[in-house]
Amino acid sequence: MIVAEQKPLEEIRRMIAPYGRVLILGCGTCMTVCDAGGEREVSFLHNALQLAQARSGDVAHTFSEHTLKRQCDPEFLELLTEKTADVDVILSLGCGIGVQAIAERLPDMPVLPGVNTSFMGMTKESGVWDERCAACGDCRLEDTAGICPITRCTKGILNGPCAGVKNGKCEANKDMDCAWILIYQRLERLQQLDKMRRYYPPRNYRTIPRPRRIMSKVDTVVGEGDG
Amino acid sequence: MNMVNKSYPENRLENAPDHSLVPPCQDACPLHMDIREYIGLVSQGRIMEALQVIRTGNPFPSICAYVCTRPCEDACRRSQVDKPIAIRSLKRFAVEFGGDRMVRAEAETTHEEKVAIVGSGPAGLACAYYLKKSGYPATILEAHSDLGGMLRVGIPQYRLPREVLDIEVQRLTRMGVEIRTNTRVVSLDLLFELGYKAIFVTIGAHQSLRMGIEGEESPGVIDGATFLREVNLGLKPSLGRKVAVVGGGNVAIDAARTATRLGVKKVSILYRRTRAEMPADPKEVEQALEEGIDIKYLVTPTEIKSENKRLNVTCVKMKLGEPDESGRQRPVPVKGSEFREEFDTLIAAIGQAPQTPDDFGVRMGRGSTIQVDPSTLTTNRVGVFAGGDAVTGPATVTEALAAGRLAALRIDDYLQHRYPLPVKEAKEKLSGDLLPETIEMIRKIERVEPPSLASEVRAKDFETIELVYGWEQAINEARRCLRCGVGVEILFQDKCATCLTCLRVCPYHVPYLDASGTIRIPADQCQACGICVAECPAKAIVLRKPFDRRQVTEELGHTIKSAVESKTKPLIIGFCCQYGLFGTGTLARLWRSAKAGVSIVPVLCVAKVEAAHILSAFETGAEGVFIAGCGEQCARENTTYWVQQRVAKVRKVLEPIGLEPERLQVFALGTTAEDPAEELDKFVEQISALRLASVIKGEVES
To answer: Taking the CB of residue A125, how many other CB atoms lie within 10 A of it?
Structure first.
């Protein structure tokens, strides 16, 4: 899942300052799960912005709110047509993808990001999320017992551990487990310690052109993004 | 790309129906009363409304409040946690404090068809009440000099004060029910000839069963029903010094306790089974023992001899054998265990049967009961309906009231030539027990028993034993209710992102993932605390009852509206738990708006106050907001934790808006050394100072 964090209220207020009618648009998928932009956060932000406005007595904004099931699919954005008729700006609480999807779909509508899209991760416990995947496009989890050194090692090294490990913890953060110790322990458990003895050549970041595209069908979409 | 062209349906929440399930108490009640609702209202101190709910489902709540056998309490799921809710005592509190005796029943006659009701027991009275309410001229015909049937001649006064019954009778008279006492009906044909279009036969079961032993006819042997009737009609039969009562039902207990009250020194009950099999109300048995009544179990009389004006009774000891058709173990005599004992009087209370005159021409069934179709109460004679003990054999007052109500509905159908529709359960029933893990997380709260007269005082006369709760006791007892079946549901499955927040935040571990990966919140386990509702990031979960869903927003709306009307800004808005906190007095003065500028938004547990609600309160212009919960007295442990989470979230946005975080406070009973009322006073001072400071600042700036 994509994990994000809502932007500070001051920043959101600064962004919307030039606009009158603001549609706060939530996203019902990842942003809901990570508490950044689901329907509840949309209405909380709505209340907060209204209160801020009432207290400061500055430019009169009018706010409306809506939450789509997903902002990153054009079909869902079609449902927006009615909602945007009398709106000057969309404040999207979708991730960066949602914001761009809106920009693509509605060429004349300014769109603002209400959240900072942070990482791809998982829930640790209620209200706590951890990064787990860097979307490097070249997954090596087979060799590392299902533990990703790229995201979970501070240095992202492929042949760890480094000399900075102390009591199984990372030198950069003594509360954080060393990813390579975790990998070692799990490989040992799985009786695959031989994988520790191998050398993994450094990854070549330059071979990955952006933006990337995945096509599960043949010859259906052509144009930009295919390298 | 025009594949999707539907807009999201708006106000889906407003239009969502009531999905609450029928709780076990309501299901067990013969009258099907909305017990959960009125207990909930009592717990909030809304006694008049509680009485209204009670009166909707029960024609004579004051009577039930004294004599109901409480099948609801037997079904109450709280007994899986600790002890059932004292439902009957709470009803008694509601009828007395709500002023049931002042309630006026009025009815107009809109139909011409006269209906005769033969018998004035609870079934007859209820039938008359509902027929009259539906606009029929109804006549009650009663053989005795006063109305009430078994309520009058069977139940002793210490269990049902006669003025309670008299008030109900007066109410019927005022409604225009025609009453003919001292009128024994011998033939139904005559009633039809007199112009009655329908007849409800509810003559009760007053004929005592015979023991079938030698010497039963001896002077000094009396049957239970006759004995109670004589005492209740004002006679004082002389019983001597030593009395035996045979039987184990409520009549036996009533007879024994009545005998004690008439001054008999030694009263013994002879029962052929053990206490576990006794059909009498366990509470009554307990009280009888407290009053010094001796109960001899596994004993039955076999012969009575009259000697020198005393009774020489031969008894035999019994043991329990194979189960009989009723499922109880059949008592069998122990050979050679006979013994003799002398008594002055022997009261036989081993059961009663109806005594229906043959001339009624109705078909009889087992045990001389009248045969009816149980769903229409029709007999084999056209226009003749029957109900109550006459049909069921001796049963409870509440069952009789239910039969009377059903009869009134069916007679209405019959007279209006409508096909009687089968009574269909409108709502799904709650089934299943609480799971051990749910039970473990429910806070144990001791059942509050109503005060009662001490045994040495009460056994002297016929004063009512059970007294009424005080205000605080009643509220504390009522808030123990688990409100079964009003839990939450995922109303909008399409919104649910299966984020598992509900599963993680539920204090009772109720939500679970089914095999297909869908989140389920089983209604029979949910305790309706509302934490998942407030925490669900998709707002997909709602409480099953529409009122519960809207409550906080609606109450906040009232506060804002009254502020607008009085053209003043509220200084402080407080979200206060309405369960107990005010009723029990701690912050009661707030409730009566004793503090200027403090507006209270009552909520049913502060766990239901969402972060957005707090912001809305500030939006009204309030300078300060507080949340006051029951703290350690709350039904669950972690309410305060969630309130603090939301408060922290709100404070985070208050700061950039220019509102100091201390403008938002949480008060919890029992968690701080200080009295919440004092803390609140300080808060009010603090907020006033903040406002003054900002006014001065504004003046300086301008």
So the answer is: 8
CB contact under 8 A, A33 and B499: yes
For residue range B207-265, list pLDDT tens digits in order: 999 999 999 999 999 999 999 999 999 888 889 999 999 999 999 999 999 999 999 99
Residue of chain B with shortest Cα separation from A55: B657
Is B504 part of the contact surface with chain A (CB cutoff 8 Å)? yes
Please name the member of B6, B536, B615 whose beta carbon is closest to the beta carbon of A48.
B615
Place of tokens 């240095």: A155
CATH of the domain at B636: 3.40.50
Terminal Cα-to-Cα distance of chain B (whole angstroms): 57
- Answer yes or no: is B18 within a domain: no
A2-119 topology per CATH: Rossmann fold (3.40.50)
Blockwise average pLDDT, block size 10, chain A, 227 residues = 96 95 96 96 95 83 95 92 92 97 94 97 93 89 94 92 94 94 97 93 73 75 55
Residue B15: helix, strand or coil by DSSP? helix
How far is it, in rounded angstroms, from Cα B672 to Cα B58? 44
Q: What is the pLDDT of residues B63-107, one digit of tens each?
A: 999 999 999 999 999 999 999 999 999 999 999 998 888 888 888
Is the Cβ–Cβ distance between B444 and B82 less than 8 Å?
Answer: yes
CB atoms within 10 A of CB A41: 27
Based on the fold, state whether residues B277 and B359 are members of the same structural domain: no
Range of the domain at B679: 551-701
Number of A–B residue contacts, CB under 8 Å: 90
DSSP letter, residue B80: G
- B605 three-class SS: coil
Residue B204 in contact with residue B390, Cβ under 8 Å?
yes
Q: Checking phi first, is residue A156 left (phi over 0); if not, alpha (psi -120 to 50) or beta?
A: left
User: Do B78 and B163 reside in the same domain of the chain?
Assistant: no
Q: Are residues B318 and B408 in the same domain?
A: no
Q: Which among B259, B417, B281, B400 is positioned nearest to B343, based on CA atoms?
A: B259
**Phi/psi at A56 (5° precision):** -90, -25
Q: Are B633 and B696 in contact (CB under 8 A)?
A: no
Cβ atoms within 10 Å of B104's Cβ, excluding its own:
7
Interface check for B621 against chain A (CB to CB < 8 A): the answer is yes
Pairing of strands A21-27, B624-629: unpaired
Structure confidence at residue B150 (pLDDT): 94
Got the DSSP string for B368-403?
GPBP--TTT-B-SSTTEEE-THHHHSS--HHHHHHH
Of B14, B22, B13, B36, residue with least CA distance to B490: B13
Q: Cβ–Cβ of A39/B8 closer than 8 Å?
A: no
DSSP annotation of B466 reads: B
> DSSP string spanning B610-673?
-HHHHHHHHHTT-SEEEEEE-GGGSSSTTHHHHHHHHHHHHHHHHHHHT--GGGEEEEETTTSS
The 3-state DSSP class for residue A18 equals: coil
Residue pointed to by tokens 């239970």: B224
Boundary of a domain, candidates B352, B380, B406? B352
Closest chain B residue to A11 measured between Cα atoms?
A: B656
| pLDDT score, position B506 | 94
List, in order, residues 6 or more apart from B151 with CB less than 8 Å away: B63, B67, B121, B122, B160, B165, B397
- CB-CB: which of A43, A52, A75 is closest to B3? A75
User: How high is the ipTM of this complex?
Assistant: 0.87
Instruction: Say if residue B224 is in the same domain as residue B192.
Output: no
Angle, nearest 10°, between helix axes B35-43 and B87-98? 60
Radius of gyration in angstroms for the set of CA atoms belonging to chain B, rounded to a whole number: 31
Nearest to A32 among B2, B538, B658 (CB): B538
- In chain A, which segments carry CATH 3.40.50.2300? 2-119
pLDDT reported for residue B672: 54
β-partners of residue B222 are B347
